[in-house]
């Protein structure tokens, strides 16, 4: 607790977590952390409103928003036809 306020209820903590998860995504590309980063950022923006849900509700909102973000990212950035891209030729040939 920070001055009588729990850290999970502060908007800037969620936005800092989103930034940290975004940095982790750069270090381990492949949309592993990007959905979580977007979910944390949206929860941080939600906490800027007068609405202040409890800890369990925040975690549930974070989980749902992260899942939705991951599904949207998967839909827009997947390989055409759902296949893995195969490189048959070398650029040095």
Report the oligomer. single chain
Tally of helical segments: 3
Percent of residues in helices comes to 55-70%
Structural class of the helix and strand makeup?
Answer: mainly alpha
* Straight-line N-to-C gap: 61 Å
Query: How would you describe the shape?
Result: elongated
Query: Which sequence of SSEs, written as H and E, runs from N to C?
Result: HHH
Number of E-state strands: 0
Percent range for β-strand residues = under 5%
Number of domains: 1
Please provide a brief summary of the model:
By secondary structure, this protein is mainly alpha-helical. The protein has helices at 11-27, 34-46, 55-77. The mean pLDDT is 86.
Describe this protein's structure.
The chain is mainly α. It has one domain. The protein has three helices and no strands. It is elongated.
SSE blueprint:
Blueprint: H1 11-27, H2 34-46, H3 55-77
Transmembrane segments: 6-24, 31-49, 55-73
Keywords: Membrane, Transmembrane, Transmembrane helix
Protein name: NfeD-like C-terminal domain-containing protein
What key attributes describe this structure?
elongated, 93 residues, transmembrane, 0% strand, mainly alpha, single chain, NfeD-like C-terminal domain-containing protein, 57% helix, membrane, transmembrane helix
